[in-house]
Amino acid sequence: MKAIESYIRDINDFPKPGIVFKDLTPLLNSPEATKLCLQELLAQVDGQHVDKVVGMEARGFFFGTLMAQALNAGFIPVRKSGKLPYETISETYALEYGSDVLEIHVDAIKPGDRVLIHDDVLATGGTAAAVCKLVERLGGVIVQCNFIMELSFLNGKDRLRAHAVRSVLTY
After folding, report:
1. CB of 39 within 8 A of CB of 71?
2. Residue 38 lies in a domain
């Protein structure tokens, strides 16, 4: 996946000293790279039936909507507390220092819906694990947790053991 990887730039010391941020904006700026990345993400779904694609705020929205369209599935945004206009359920999850809350509309997923969860990066797995809980509370069946890249040294996959996890790139 060198072709995709060449469009991801490292930004040192962002958002704080010692962090190397993986910036996807050059990939998004290239129609060819975006198309290639989308093809790789869809190949990982391996022809499984998907009713809904859940994308996490905000970078999970970029490819999540494209995947939903390609899979002829609905797209569901999961957002931070207070950002969705209709009735929601919420899930609190731990951050490095403190916690945060994610929300989903109560009518977004019907019992038995087959759901693909997508985000750009799998790091510690806290966000993805919280989204899995939201989907399951609404009765959704998680087909896969799907990422553009996995930062394997942070062991995020460990928090998602109950689900299939796929990434285009692994660091």
Report:
1. no
2. no
Tokens at residue 32, please? 């060819």
Do strands 88-95 and 98-105 pair parallel, antiparallel, or not at all (unpaired)?
antiparallel
Residue 14 counted as domain residue: no
Q: Residue 161 belongs to a domain with what CATH number?
A: 3.40.50.2020
**47 DSSP 8-state letter:** T
Q: What residues are annotated to the active site?
A: 59, 96
The token pair that represents 111 in the structure block? 């019992």
Coil, strand or helix: which one is 34? helix
Number of domains into which the chain is organized: 1
| Cα–Cα separations (whole angstroms), residue 121 to 13, 21, 126 | 17, 10, 11
Identify residue 54 by its one-letter amino acid code. V
Task: Give the pLDDT of the chain (171 residues) as one tens digit per residue.
Answer: 679 999 999 999 998 899 899 999 999 999 999 999 999 999 999 999 999 999 999 999 999 999 999 999 999 999 999 999 999 999 999 876 778 999 999 999 999 999 999 999 999 999 999 999 999 999 999 999 999 999 999 999 999 999 999 999 999
Cβ(42)–Cβ(70) below 8 Å:
yes
Residue 70 domain boundaries: 46-170
Which amino acid, residue 106? V
